[in-house]
Amino acid sequence: MSDLDQFELYLESLSTTTSATSGADFEMVELLVLPANTNKSHMDFFEVIKSTNAYLCKNKGSSADFSILKDTCERHVEKVDNEIGNLINVPLYIGLAGTFIGIIIGLSGIDFSTTTAGTTTTISSDSIGHLLNGVIAAMVASLVGLAFTVVNSAMIYKPAAYRNDTDKNHYYDFLQRELLPYLNIGVSKSLGSFKDVLNHFIKKFGENMGDYKDSGQLLNENLKKQQTVLEEIK
User: Fold this and answer.
1) Does some domain include residue 97?
2) CA-CA distance, 164 to 73, in Å (whole number)?
3) Helix, strand and coil percent figures for the chain, each rounded to 5
4) Contact (CB, 8 A) for 171 and 73
5) Are the CB atoms for 142 and 97 separated by under 8 Å?
6) Which tens digit of pLDDT belongs to each residue from 221-232?
7) Any domain includes 71
8) Distances (CA, A) of 216 to 201, 207, 211, 220, 225
9) What is the spatial distance between Cα 162 and Cα 169, in angstroms, rounded to a whole number?
């Protein structure tokens, strides 16, 4: 199945297909199948299963390499982890932007008034209050952004990462316990069949070599007789 779309349709049909017509020509391949509801709610994990099944189909009859299966899972997990990691510090950046905006608004509201007699510059109390409100808003925005960042990192991301590592280890245990033994049995059966065929070939080849030896001796005797006849004719 070189076409990826056909392979995806085949994987989707596995969840509903339970039997096959007897007498048909089938090749047995051990695959990982998830229920349809699991595929919809865990699309990232479904991508891991799809890549794993593609590897198993392409390497049918050979021993599966656990390191390749593990690398397939790790690459998908790393992709999702990078996407999440890029979003963890977003609240902090938003809070920092709010800090600058609050300070700018506070400074823009300052009203500098001058007196003509003594050329004295004064700031009204309303302007000072406006500046303080802007600084307070800036500090609140920074604090809220920092709080959300801490919540994302310590209270959401770390427990999720721990659960991901636990589930990933369970998945690797499942591969080593359930899938790889079946694949190794299939390879052992193939090697056993090849050994039987090879032994049969060697046996038959030895018998044929014995017949060829007798035929060679008979041909050699005939050549000697023909040589003797030719010498007598001369």
Assistant:
1) yes
2) 12
3) 80, 5, 20
4) yes
5) no
6) 777 777 776 777
7) no
8) 22, 14, 9, 6, 14
9) 11
Question: Would 122 be classed as within a structural domain?
Answer: yes
Residues 124-143: tens digit of each pLDDT: 677 788 788 888 988 999 99
Residue 115 within any structural domain of the chain: yes
Backbone angles phi, psi at 8, to 5 degrees: -65, -40
Which candidate, 145, 143, 141, places its Cα nearest to that of 99?
A: 141
Distance of CA 101 to the CA centre of its chain: 43
Q: CA 154, 159, 160, 165 torsion: positive or negative?
A: positive
Contact predicate 60/190, CB 8 Å: no
Q: Token pair for residue 61?
A: 């009859």
Is residue 91 within 8 Å of residue 145, measured between CB atoms?
yes
Whether 104 contacts 135, CB under 8 Å: no
Tokens of 4: 């990826």
The domain of 167 spans 88-176
Residue 195 Cα distances to 62, 188, 192, 198, 209, angstroms: 16, 10, 5, 5, 21
Closest CA to 172 of 48, 58, 43, 63: 48
Distance, in Å, from the CA atom of 205 to the CA atom of 195, rounded to the nearest integer, reads 15
**Radius of gyration (Cα) for the chain, nearest Å?**
40
Q: How many domains does the chain have?
A: 1
| pTM for this predicted structure | 0.56
